[in-house]
């Protein structure tokens, strides 16, 4: 008894022998598994147990079968040797349901096993993949498995080979045959997988049209319609977010204008304060290569606000000087100066006149050689553009 409990090969041999004796009688298999759990250590050897029940033998990492040539160490009475038929696989699903209801602690181990098997899909034949997809779909439908097991399908090697998408189609079909499309979509939402369905396809095919065509042709139009609705809702949420941000900026503009009027503040005094407030609103990344990207994203959002209060040449120069000082005082921003100025130029916060004036005479001493060097090419481009527009004006 002690040997049976703690030897994996003895554990395997006992399970294989019991399955072979029970034969194709799934009721007898369920009874054997129920009874054997009281003397074998299912908790310790759960992965071996489930490997045998699904594939007929122990599996090595990657999914290849161990002891495949020794017929005494494998069984044909398992999912992979069952008929490729929904009812036949459903009967096998009942074996797993009974086993997990009897030994509740196997629930998590079974979930981990299915996740593992999905990673091994390349090692299985197409018919084995189909049977595993049907089994998974049926067990997802009756709640034995959670939808989170599907995250294994987003693995690069099976996505690129097209295995992930074809497996998912078979799985969803089996799921919907047990229940309906609504149970699939609600489970995907709960598991936060509804927005990840496109990841079943390689990057160059991750678009709604390809997904819709593939799933509709496979007879899963409900799921392609569901994805279209999800994408549409996502777009609407983005728009809603942008409108909320615009409303917030409008509120800030009105508030600042009222304060300017009440305290008789000139615009050049306000722009410096606004810059400081905007930059203090964020916890900045400490890595130089990441902070520039973070800053541009943040400042792009607030550019319309700064544009309202930089309508005078003096205000623009003060803003440029503030940006220069900030980038000098915060070492991680040293390389971001030129990118910020170009962003503000494109967003109509800064004019070319102000940038050229700052470059020639209005810059401050802090880090001037570094920042002037950064701006050199952009300034040359501005000067050339200015000269071209002047010569065009003379011709006219």
UniProtKB/TrEMBL annotation:
Alphabetized SMART domains for the sequence: eIF5C (SM00515)
Stored Gene3D superfamilies: 1.25.40.180
Keywords: Cytoplasm, Translation regulation
Gene Ontology cellular component terms for the protein in this record: cytoplasm; membrane
Domain W2: start-end pairs: 229-392
One Pfam family linked to the record: HEAT_5MP1_2
Record-linked PROSITE patterns: W2 (PS51363)
Coiled coil: none
BP GO annotations: regulation of translational initiation
Domain of life the protein comes from: Eukaryota
Compartments it resides in: Cytoplasm
Predominant location: cytoplasm
Family from the record: Belongs to the BZW family.
Name recorded for this polypeptide: eIF5-mimic protein 1
Species whose genome carries this gene: Mesitornis unicolor
């Amino acid at each position: 008894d002690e040997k049976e409990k703690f030897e994996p090969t003895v554990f395997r041999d006992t399970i294989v022998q019991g399955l072979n004796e029970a034969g194709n009688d799934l009721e007898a298999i369920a009874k054997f598994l129920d009874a054997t759990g009281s003397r074998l250590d299912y908790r310790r050897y759960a992965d071996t147990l489930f490997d045998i029940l699904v594939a007929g033998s122990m599996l090595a990492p990657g999914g290849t079968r161990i002891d495949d040539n020794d017929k005494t160490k494998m069984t044909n009475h398992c999912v992979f040797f069952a008929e490729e038929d929904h009812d036949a696989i459903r009967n096998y699903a009942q074996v797993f349901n009974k086993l997990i209801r009897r030994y509740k602690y196997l629930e998590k181990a079974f979930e981990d096993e299915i996740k593992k098997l999905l990673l091994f899909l390349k090692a299985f034949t197409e018919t084995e993949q189909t049977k595993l997809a049907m089994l998974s779909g049926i067990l997802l439908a009756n709640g034995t498995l959670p939808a989170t097991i599907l995250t294994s399908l987003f693995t690069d090697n099976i996505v690129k080979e097209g295995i992930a998408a074809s497996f998912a189609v078979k799985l969803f079909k089996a799921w919907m045959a047990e229940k309906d499309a609504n149970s699939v979509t609600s489970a995907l939402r709960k598991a936060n997988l509804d927005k990840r369905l496109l990841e079943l396809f390689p990057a160059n095919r991750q678009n709604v049209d390809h997904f819709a065509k593939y799933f509709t042709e496979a007879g899963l139009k409900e799921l392609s319609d569901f994805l279209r609705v999800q994408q549409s809702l996502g777009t609407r949420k983005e728009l809603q977010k942008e409108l909320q941000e615009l409303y917030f900026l409008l509120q800030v503009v009105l508030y600042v204008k009222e304060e300017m009027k009440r305290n008789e503040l000139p615009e050049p005094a306000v722009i410096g304060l606004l810059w400081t407030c905007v930059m203090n609103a964020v916890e900045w990344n400490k890595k130089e290569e990441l902070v520039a990207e973070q800053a541009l994203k943040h400042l792009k959002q607030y550019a319309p606000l700064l544009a309202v209060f930089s309508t005078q040449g003096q205000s623009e120069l003060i803003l440029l000087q503030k940006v220069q000082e900030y980038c000098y005082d915060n070492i991680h921003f040293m390389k971001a100066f030129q990118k910020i100025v170009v962003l503000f130029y494109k967003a109509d916060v800064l004019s070319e006149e102000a940038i050229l004036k700052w470059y020639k005479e209005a810059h401050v001493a802090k880090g001037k050689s570094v920042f002037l060097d950064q701006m050199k090419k952009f300034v040359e481009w501005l000067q050339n553009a200015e000269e071209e527009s002047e010569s065009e004006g003379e011709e006219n």
